[in-house]
Structure formats: C-alpha cells, structure tokens
What we know:
Blueprint: H1 2-57, H2 73-81, H3 95-113, H4 118-136, E1 144-152, E2 162-165, E3 170-176, E4 185-190, E5 196-199, E6 206-211, E7 218-224, E8 231-237, E9 241-250, H5 271-277, E10 286-288, E11 296-300, E12 304-309, E13 312-315, E14 320-323, E15 329-334, E16 338-343, E17 346-351
Amino acid sequence: MTICKKNMILLLKKLLVILVTATFIVPLNLLAQQAIQPIASNSTQTSANMASMAGTSGGNAASQPVNTLPANFALQSNSAQNVPLPPPADTGPTPEDIDTARSKAFDALTLTALPMTSEQIRKLRGLFAQSQRAASAYPVAPPKAIISSQQVSLEPGATPPIIRLGQGFVSSVLFLDSTGAPWPIQAYDIGNPTAYNISWDKVSNILMMQSITQFTMGNLAILLKGLSTPIMITIVPGQPVVDYRLEMRVQGLGPNAKPQISNGLPDAADSSLMNLLDGVAPPKAKPLTIPNSTSQAWLLGKDKMYLRTRLTLLSPAWISKMSSADGMNVYEIPKTSSILVSNQGQISNLPIEGL
C-alpha cells in the first residue's frame, strides 16, 4: 500500500513537469523563432544583393566574403533602443539664471515707466513751456499801469468819470470827499455782471474791479452814504493804460470829513491841485527848494504858490487844499519865504529857497 502511494506521487510529479513544459516553454521557443526568422531572412537577402552587385561591377574579381551578424543581434539592438532613458534630475535655477531674469524684468519695467530719454524729456518740457508762454502772452503790448485821481462832478451835463480796466489786472477804486476823507459806499450796480468781477467788503469806500473779457464795455452805478445822487462810471477795458488805483474825489463833505481850518468851504476843485496830487506840476510853474524835507513847492506867477507835502500846514493860511487817500496834501498858498508845519504834533519852520 505504501509502495503504491509512492508510485502515484512520482507519476503525478512527472505529469506536472510535462504540463508546465507544454504550457510555457514550448510557446516561448516558438515566439523566439518567429521573431528571429524575419531578421535572418533580411540578412540573407542583403548578403545576396551585395554579392550580385560585386559580380556585376567586376566579373573577374574574386567574390568577397560577406560578414553576417548573429541572428539575435537585431533583437538585442531593438530591445536596447526601446528602453527609455531616466529623466534628468531637477536641480532648480542657478544664481546666474536668477540674476539674468531680474535684469530682464528691471529693463522691461524701466522701459515701460520711463520710455523717453533725458534729452527727449528736456526737449518736451521746453516745447510745453513755449506753448504755455504763447497761450499766456498778451495779444498786444502789455498795458501801462498808472495811479491817478479824478474829480467827480454831479452837475447835469457833466461827463461821467472813466475807469480803464485790463483783463487779468485788478484795479482799486477809492471814493473821497473834498477834504480827502474816505466816503463809504452804500451800494453799487454793474451794467454787465458777466463781463466784470467786482469785490466789496460792504463797509469801506474801496471797490476791487477786474475785467473778465478783453474789450466788453459797460458802466457802474455807485451810491455813497448820505449822497442822494448816484455816481455813474464808464468802464473801458482793453486800453493801453490800466488804472491800478483810481481816487474819485466827490465835491462835498462826507460822513468822515476832516475838520476845516480856513473859513468857509473851498470852491470847486482846482485842476492844478488834482494834477499835483498825481505828481504833475502846473504848467509854467517854477520849482522851489525846501531844504532837509521831502515837501515840494512851486511858484506860479508873482504871488501864488503850491505846496505838496504829507505834513499839516499851519501857516500861512491856505487858499485851497486837496488830499489823497494815502495822506498826501496839496495846498494853494500866497507867496511866502517859509512855512509852519506840524508833523504828528511836532511843529517846525521850513524855509523856502529859490524865490
């Protein structure tokens, strides 16, 4: 019984070896033969072609031996070619690559933010300055600025006073009474509000005027405190002369009139006194000298003198007087060789030379 079991085990082992051989070994040998057979045939064909070419080129030449590769060479070569190479190791960017990238980024940003060169920028600024200068230039010769005074007459038939304005120039208009004291403004009205800009603090006697247009004419109506008659003023812009400051003297005493020293009220304002306030001496008047003083004197004819000073005249008694808003006084006095004046309460005697 034991012998039979051993024989059965040996028999089963033999059958198992035969089955494995038939299943794996035989098919593998067949596949190898099928893969080698085309390569061998190609090699044989190539050798035959070379032999025929050699025979054709020289019939008497001896046939050269043809070297043939082993049958399994092509299979081995193809298998080696199909094996993929391992990918290169990723070591990251080098410091040189980082510096190069930063330099390129900086150059690109600089070109985007500052595309022009320094010379082009200077040239562009010069062209811009030229265009601004041309746009701001006055179309004609710049006007001459003057400071003057005018006598305002309220009589029927009198010519209204004129103020000359300029576009881009501010002019101040002051209203004074016959004593030179400020005459406050009560109200005003402008004929063309869109052509002029007027500023007033609603208290003082000063108007600030400016022409918005260059040649638009208009007029202005002024009401002074305590004066029932309005003062009409003609506005003329675009002239070669601009009144930077214009003092308009109204005949009469305003609410701030200075006390009078002489008897009675002065007559109508003398044009010579008005011109003297502006610094213009009467025609044919002889200039006189007052030593160590800023006062000025003129002799007109044989017995009439004019005095222009910021001091208060005490003696001789003046015939007529006119004052400006800045404190300048003009007197008409009889011919004399000296004057008695007061400077803030200090009395002094000033000689007059050149008579």
